[in-house]
Amino acid sequence: MTELAELLELWEPVIGLEVHVQLATRSKAFSPAGVVFGAPPNSLVDPTVLGLPGSLPVFNQAALALALKLGVATGSQIRAKSRFARKHYFYPDQPKNYQISQYDEPLCENGHLDVIIGGAVKRIKLTRIHLEEDAGKLTHVGAMSHVDLNRSGVPLVEVVSAPELTSSEEAAEFMRSLHRLVRWLEISEADMEKGQLRCDANVSVRLRGEDRLGTRTELKNINSFRFVQNAIDHEIARQLRLIDGGGRVERETRLWDADAGQSAPMRSKEEANDYRYFPDPDLPVLVVDGPTMGGILRAQPELPAARFQRYQEDIGLSADDARTMIGERALAEYFDATCKAHGMLKSGRTIANWILTELLGALNKAGKGIAESPMPPERLAALVRLVEDGTISGKIGKEVFEEAFAKGEEPGAIVERRGVQQISDEATLAAVVEEVVAASPKQTAEYQGGKDSLFGYFVGQVMKKTQGRANPVITTDLLKKRLGR
Questions:
Q1: Nearest CA among 400, 414, 389, 404 for reference residue 471
Q2: Same domain as 310, residue 235
Q3: Domains identified in the chain, total number
Q4: Are residues 306 and 292 in the same domain?
Q5: Which of 296, 312, 346 is the endpoint of a domain?
Q6: What residue numbers bound the domain in which 469 lies?
Q7: DSSP for 58-114?
Q8: 8 A C-beta contact, residue 89 and residue 99
Q9: What's the pTM?
Q10: Is there a single domain that holds both residue 88 and residue 108?
Q11: What are the DSSP E strand ranges found in 232-360?
Q12: Per-residue pLDDT tens over the stretch 278-290
């Protein structure tokens, strides 16, 4: 059989993702039942969730506001009027035997998601973003199945990408970028371990150069970035080997077993007509009015991908540092606030180094997040200025940082109290250099004879005599002039 690497030279994968994001509301999409993770099984239900006769759904407007935030952030076309539909299927986790979703009139269409890949941003088209309710959860124990309906009716948005992703790595980055965005906008906690962000991946292969899509399979309910990448890699390999062996790819839904590292058939892939969609007669048209859209637009923050590019282009951060800095909105805003307090854009890389090494290290050790930092942006900016203007050395700066972090004291006050100002006066340092050289005739002769490694000895002696307060740049220059090399 042909090697997989050779097959990938002839065939290309085409991937589209359908990502379900749980919206951060206090109650469910169509009933007042609460949304609380970890509540006792079947404790968050009511007649509407249970599908009891006579119960009627009432849409949760808080879910609409959150969905609109995502629609605006992805540059989607927002429907002024959209409609809910019933998607029919029988399953124990959906008591009323249909799911309320959106079909031919979704809330958002034709948007895009900016995906960070390496040091660049790639724009992936979105087919649609629509509102729907979640199903319950089944837990299988041997021959028994336990049904928990607490999740049934929880509001979701489904984000559907165009089939434009070309590798498992791109698909995983799509997931990371969406995860970052919904948390950035405070639309969802997106905790994948709690099932708040789940992915279905549609995978097909086609001969390179072809426009027509191949037969696709759907990988269902994948709940981690790593699993998405592994599942897609496995499916690409399975399809290519099947084709290479003379077989045909069947359109089907498959379940990914992360422990076994393989997928298994679940069912043949349904078409839209299998679900018998029709408009929900119990729910009115969903209207998005001008005041609602105006409020969403006014509250729109600078988005992660835009900051990622700005941090590289305007401030000069590396792609890795920029990616880390936009990992969460609070961290990016702390960085921007520190740069603003400092006032010098060219110092942005220095500030980033202090945040990513000293501050995050101290916060991690203390078990705190950036929002709980005892070191406000203005205080860190003041410390960076003290190091940059030569008042204190970088080594002393780290000591001052530790004290300021622990005690909440201003860096300038710590420097003054401890008397650790850096010595930058050339005349003073020249006298110390002369004293060190005069006391080290043997080392001076050896250095002047070509033993370069001894230069560190002279620097160390100057630092020892000044208790580490000598300006290292000025000290180096003076020693080179005095020693003649």
A1: 389
A2: no
A3: 3
A4: no
A5: 296
A6: 426-483
A7: ---HHHHHHHHHHHHHTTPEEPSEE--EEEE---TT-TTSEEEE--SS-SEEEEEEE
A8: yes
A9: 0.88
A10: yes
A11: 252-257, 262-268, 278-279, 286-287
A12: 999 999 999 999 9
